[in-house]
Amino acid sequence: MAPLLFVTGASSGIGQALAWRYYQAGYSLALVARRTEEMQAWAHKQGLDPLRYQIYSADVAVVESIVAATEQCVQTQGVPDVVIANAGVSIGMDSAVRGDLDVMSRTFAINNVGLAATFHAFIDPMVRRGSGALVGIGSVAAIRGLPGHGAYCASKAAVVAYCESLRGELRDSGVQVVTICPGYIDTPLTRHNRYSMPFLMQADVFADKAFATITAGDSYRVIPWQMGVVAKALRLLPNWLYDKVLSGRPRKKRITEA
Fold this sequence. Notes:
globular; 8 helices; alpha/beta; two-stranded parallel sheet
């Protein structure tokens, strides 16, 4: 029987690229997103074997919705070998604007609570089996806050801390917890950014490197590695200098501008 990948946010971008990379490696797929029509159209276009994939509709921001999809996967396809909690949003915010507090709340609902809910149903059966990989997609933006990106940076920092906590909880269980922090990847999420994106990487190249990282059982990786070096260098700057460097930098579009 082919190994199984469960991936959220599979209707576009990184999630779709990861799904294709794993399919090419012989995996069956559990594809999860709200936009099921787009996933089905993509599967048809790629010529996926209908016996090797299932599509599940779920809103990761709603706990019961994503939990229902995970439970349906277990019943239909079995316990996955790899689970990638990839679904995420990146929207600029201004805490002085009341509506942007709702943006922050939804960002955390998707990027953090949704990630934990994605893993929830798989943890116990993976532990009983003694194998499996739970993969959280963070971001290089987790390493230091960016003006206008408060919701996104904070949520991705929380992804890193959560996965580290979970890794400690599952130590010696046979279940790996992997944190991958992408830099700038060419996806619909980044194409409307109004600032420079150094070391921009194509989604399929990212998927190759992420696949290798997960297969190797690495616990944490920034992809591409150059962005990790840049982010850590920025982390070392004193606050006054960091603030000066970031002064005037274009900000992520807020929801009213998107």
